[in-house]
């Protein structure tokens, strides 16, 4: 740091005594000097100082210096050292990664490099400046220019790709650097090209046109193929970029005989077991396998796939990959990926399928490699990805190829002790009509199963074998899509009835779950056996068997009774019925809800009415009391009309009015009660409780009516008495005329 | 498959003149009546025989659309031969030849053999450019000239093979530096010795069926 300070001092001259300039000020003065000084030495020193500051203060240097640095690249091309400083400074400013010096500066935005990149490429001519610098042979300049481009590409891949594509010879220039004899430049160029080609088909094609594959294979070979260092991996990664989803380049690769050149990559020396595999070798081989898979990827056009597959077999690549499968000491993930690759190299290609069908594993006794692979798939001790890979490979081996299907079953069937293979077949075929159909087409397949099922040997393993054969046959019937004319469900069933008989068949099916090994295996997902001989049945199979046993037995029994066609029609009927009933059920539930709501409403109306009724009762009582209180003094004075009588008359009229009002109220309530009665009647069925309430209501209502009637008669009585007393009593009639109901 | 030499070609010219059709006719012996606009660049290859030698042609069919012009320019440098195509039924494609030629001369190596092709000769009734005009232009600029039809295949084989012959002669004369792959020429892996097994015998005039590897 002291050195740096003194460096800056010599560039800027001594600072004013007593005050230290801020970083921003320092940068400003350096930039000013780099841009305006007439002396090259000054500009060079300023650039050197800026470079030194740019790791810790890239914000300041970038914000103030970007334009000046760009200008230096243009104007000071003659001085490599200055150019080099300027390039390095720019590279630091746009660097996608954080510098150690910056760690204590949280205020620097995370994407600062990205922002400066955006500023720098705003003028596409700036990229041209860098491309021009690639022509400079000077080691430092060339290297810095490449590194700067890598940083820019990392930040803004798409933008830079488009700019470079727009520059004539832009890509070609970078390709030229691959031939640089200085390894550092060459290696850095590889990284640049990997970034440059990512996801851009046009650039990929130009790079391929510029003999990239030749260059890359030269490097791979000079570095010792799979034993080479990370450079080999980089070369392969670049090739992968060039080929992935680029049919034009794949075509070029295949036409240019580059598939042949991949072969030495797969030569695994005999003594590899002792030496072991370095992590780099694993990576290299992994990339190479990816390359193989990219060429024959199922997403490519059928013609490309088939062409590449043929070439791979003809030039010995398939053979070499099979050798890796058979070699000892191969790491599991390489093995897995090799199996996947072999699968895709043979997929749908008859002669390649035949080829791997004939590969013999170096086991004792020798067995077909495909069988050894299959055994490893059902072996739970193998890593799961490996078992999946085998399954995939196996599918590829069988895909579009009756020959290999037949071969497979033929190789499987005679070895009756390989119960595991029947187990495998049942796992493969259950729930898969296509697989069933494939199996049914295999000559001799069904015959073998029927013979086994009807066999009468009583050896322990034979019983299991017979049971499994029955199980497989049941699967063939249950998951049969009737696509194989000679073995439709019905004809298979007929065959079974004739050759085995349903009872015996079901008995044989039962043999499986009664077997001692089955019961052992069903208990533990992990194999717990003393010797491989006992590994006949695994846990997964037990689960499958359990899930299918009853279904199969049942379906067979039903089929026996009704035949498949009838079954299905009947099933449809039942389904329709169930659907109907379901709909009806829904409807009823809805109705019930509505009725319950209605009942609740009625209940509350009823409550209101009851309250009103009791209020009226009270009023009635009060009136009665009043009436009786008034009537007592009337009796002792039956003589001449006196002023008191006028009073009475008035009072009487008042009471009459009151009575009239009550009458009306009662009529209204009667109407209300009638209405409630009606409503209650409709709700009665759904809501029995409300019926009881209604009963209560009725009773109350009767009481009330009784009371009112009572009152009515009393009023009449009063009227009569008044009449007897000689008082004219006006009738209710006129009032009633005023209120027609 | 073993070859004595490998030549890289490019096909250039305005959009719609029939570049892709010429390539397809040459590699697959098919004609494509619908204009399937080329995006960027497409690749094709075929083996021919010249002077008893197997010669592999790798052909890059470029896009004529203006938008792809800078991409096209990236292919000049590494090509040994170029087919410069115009459409005899559209004069403007002929008028643009000078621009194409300038571009080619500027970006290619000086020894690149350029074959001028007036395509769609089957459309005589709609002809806008006389054959003599094409001949004159070729003479003036030192090009080989031919009228072709990608539809009837007339002269298509000849166009590609004559270009190869021209390059081959230049090699014999020592004009090309065959060790510099940037010239678009490669020497085969087993120079001059006939390839061992495999399909595709060497027929005189060289026309193994397309799609052969
Ligand atoms: N009659 C006739 N039509 C042709 C001939 N060659 C091409 N065509 C038609 O011309 C149209 C354009 O052909 P392309 O080969 O796709 O043109 P291109 O030069 O590749 O065009 P770009 O890819 O856009 O540069 C298509 O409709 C072809 O069928 C020919 O010799 N005769
Ligand atoms: Mg085209």
From TrEMBL, chain A:
It comes from the Eukaryota. Gene3D superfamilies: Leucine-rich Repeat Variant (1.25.10.10). Residues 564-605, 645-704 form a coiled coil. GO terms for biological process: endoplasmic reticulum to Golgi vesicle-mediated transport; Golgi vesicle docking; intracellular protein transport; transcytosis; vesicle fusion with Golgi apparatus. The keyword Repeat applies. It is a peripheral membrane protein. GO terms for cellular component: endoplasmic reticulum; ER to Golgi transport vesicle membrane; Golgi membrane; Golgi stack. Residues 614-738 form the Uso1/p115-like vesicle tethering protein C-terminal domain. InterPro entries: ARM-like, ARM-type_fold, P115_Arm_rpt, Uso1_p115_C, Vesicle_P115, Vesicle_Uso1_P115_head. Its main location: cytoplasm. Transmembrane segments: none annotated. Keywords: Coiled coil, Cytoplasm, Golgi apparatus, Membrane, Repeat. It is found in: Cytoplasm; Endomembrane system; Golgi apparatus. Residues 369-416, 418-553 form the Vesicle tethering protein Uso1/P115-like head domain. This is Jg12146 protein. The gene is jg12146.
UniProtKB/TrEMBL annotation, chain B:
One of its GO terms (biological process) is vesicle-mediated transport. The keyword GTP-binding applies. One of its GO terms (cellular component) is Golgi apparatus. This is Jg14568 protein. Belongs to the small GTPase superfamily. Rab family. Gene3D superfamilies: P-loop containing nucleotide triphosphate hydrolases (3.40.50.300). NCBIfam families: small_GTP. Signal peptide: none annotated. Pfam families: Ras. Keywords: ER-Golgi transport, Golgi apparatus, GTP-binding, Lipoprotein, Membrane, Nucleotide-binding, Prenylation, Protein transport, Transport. It is a lipid-anchor. Transmembrane segments: none annotated. PROSITE patterns: RAB, RAS, RHO. Its main location: membrane. It is found in: Endomembrane system; Golgi apparatus. GO terms for molecular function: GTP binding; GTPase activity. InterPro entries: P-loop_NTPase (IPR027417), Rab_GTPases_membrane_traffic (IPR050209), Small_GTP-bd (IPR005225), Small_GTPase (IPR001806).
């Amino acid at each position: 740091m002291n050195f740096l300070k003194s460096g800056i001092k010599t560039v800027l001259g001594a600072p004013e005594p007593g005050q230290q300039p801020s970083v921003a000020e320092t940068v400003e003065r350096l930039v000013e000097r780099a841009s305006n000084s007439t002396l090259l030495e000054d500009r060079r020193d300023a650039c050197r100082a800026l470079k030194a500051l740019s790791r810790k203060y890239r914000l300041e240097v970038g914000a103030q210096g970007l334009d000046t640095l760009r200008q230096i690249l243009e104007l000071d091309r003659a001085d490599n050292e200055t150019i080099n400083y300027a390039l390095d400074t720019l590279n630091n400013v746009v660097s996608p990664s954080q510098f150690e010096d910056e760690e204590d500066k949280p205020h620097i935005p995370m994407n600062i490099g990205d922002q400066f990149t955006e500023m720098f490429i705003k003028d596409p001519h700036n990229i041209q400046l860098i491309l021009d610098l690639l022509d400079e042979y000077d080691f430092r300049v060339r290297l810095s220019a490449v590194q700067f481009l890598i940083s820019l590409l990392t930040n803004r891949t798409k933008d830079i790709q488009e700019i470079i594509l727009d520059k004539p010879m832009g890509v070609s220039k970078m390709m030229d650097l691959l031939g640089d004899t200085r390894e550092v430049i060459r290696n850095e160029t590889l990284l640049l090209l990997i970034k440059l080609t990512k996801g851009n088909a046009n650039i990929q094609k130009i790079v391929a046109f510029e003999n990239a594959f030749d260059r890359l294979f030269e490097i791979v070979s000079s570095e010792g193929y799979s034993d080479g260092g990370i450079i080999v991996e980089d070369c392969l990664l670049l090739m992968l970029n060039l080929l992935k989803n680029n049919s034009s380049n794949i075509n070029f690769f295949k036409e240019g005989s580059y598939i042949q050149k991949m072969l030495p990559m797969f030569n695994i020396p005999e003594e590899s077991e002792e030496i072991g595999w370095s992590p780099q070798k694993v990576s290299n081989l992994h990339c190479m396998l990816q390359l193989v898979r990219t060429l024959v990827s199922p997403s490519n056009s059928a013609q490309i796939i088939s062409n590449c597959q043929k070439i791979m077999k003809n030039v010995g690549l398939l053979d070499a990959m099979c050798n890796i499968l058979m070699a000892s000491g191969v790491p599991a993930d390489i093995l897995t990926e090799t199996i996947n690759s072999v699968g895709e190299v043979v997929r749908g290609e008859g002669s390649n399928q035949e080829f791997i069908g004939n590969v013999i594993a170096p086991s004792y006794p020798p067995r077909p490699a495909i069988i050894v692979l299959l055994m490893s798939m059902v072996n739970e001790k193998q890593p799961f990805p490996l078992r999946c890979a085998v399954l995939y490979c196996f599918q590829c081996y069988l895909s579009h190829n009756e020959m290999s299907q037949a071969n497979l079953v033929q190789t499987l069937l005679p070895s009756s002790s390989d119960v595991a293979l029947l187990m495998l077949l049942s796992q493969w075929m259950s729930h898969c009509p296509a697989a069933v159909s494939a199996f049914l087409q295999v000559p001799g397949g069904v015959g073998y199963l029927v013979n086994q099922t009807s066999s009468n040997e009583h050896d322990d393993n034979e019983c299991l074998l017979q049971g499994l054969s029955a199980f497989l046959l049941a699967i063939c019937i249950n998951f049969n899509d009737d696509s194989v004319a000679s073995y439709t469900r019905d004809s298979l069933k007929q065959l079974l009835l004739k050759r085995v008989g349903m009872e015996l068949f079901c008995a044989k099916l039962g043999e499986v779950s009664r077997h001692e090994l089955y019961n052992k295996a069903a208990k533990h997902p992990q194999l717990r056996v003393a010797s491989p001989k006992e590994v006949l049945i695994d846990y997964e199979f037990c689960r499958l068997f359990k899930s299918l046993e009853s279904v199969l037995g049942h379906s067979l029994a039903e089929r026996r009774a009704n035949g498949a066609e009838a079954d299905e029609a009947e099933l449809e009927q039942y389904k329709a019925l169930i659907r109907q009933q379901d709909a009806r059920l829904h409807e009823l539930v809805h109705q019930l809800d509505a009725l319950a709501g209605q009942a609740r409403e009625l209940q509350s109306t009823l409550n209101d009415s009851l309250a009103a009724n009791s209020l009226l009762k009270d009023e009635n009582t009060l009136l009665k009391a009043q009436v009786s209180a008034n009537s007592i003094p009337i009796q002792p004075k039956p003589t001449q009309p006196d002023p008191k009588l006028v009073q009475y008359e008035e009072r009487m009229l008042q009471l009459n009015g009151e009575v009239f009002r009550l009458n009306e109220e009662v009529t209204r309530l009667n109407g209300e009660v009638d209405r409630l009665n009606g409503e209650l009647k409709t709700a009665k069925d759904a809501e029995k409780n409300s019926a009881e309430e209604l009963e209560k209501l009725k009773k109350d209502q009767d009481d009330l009516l009784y009371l009112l009637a009572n009152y009515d008669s009393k009023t009449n009585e009063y009227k009569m008495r008044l009449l007897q007393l000689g008082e004219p009593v006006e009738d209710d009639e006129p009032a009633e005329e005023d209120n027609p109901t | 498959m073993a070859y004595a030499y490998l030549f890289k070609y490019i096909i250039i010219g305005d959009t719609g003149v029939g570049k892709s059709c010429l390539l397809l006719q040459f590699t697959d012996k098919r004609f494509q009546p619908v204009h399937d606009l080329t995006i960027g660049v497409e690749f094709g290859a075929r083996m021919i025989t010249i002077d008893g030698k197997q010669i592999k042609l790798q052909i890059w069919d470029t896009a004529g659309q203006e938008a792809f012009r800078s991409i096209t320019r990236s292919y000049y440098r590494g090509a040994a031969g170029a087919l410069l195509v115009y459409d005899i039924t559209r004069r403007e494609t002929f008028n643009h030849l000078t621009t194409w030629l300038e571009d080619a001369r500027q970006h290619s190596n000086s020894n690149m053999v350029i074959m001028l092709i007036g395509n769609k000769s089957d459309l005589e009734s709609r002809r806008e450019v006389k054959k003599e005009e094409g001949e004159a232009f070729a003479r003036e600029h030192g090009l080989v000239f031919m009228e072709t039809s990608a539809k009837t295949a007339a002269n298509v084989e000849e166009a590609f093979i004559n270009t190869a012959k021209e390059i081959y002669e230049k090699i014999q004369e020592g004009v090309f530096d065959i060790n510099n792959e940037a010239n678009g020429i490669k020497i085969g892996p087993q120079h001059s010795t006939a390839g061992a097994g495999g399909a595709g015998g060497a027929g005189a005039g060289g026309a193994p069926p397309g799609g052969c590897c």
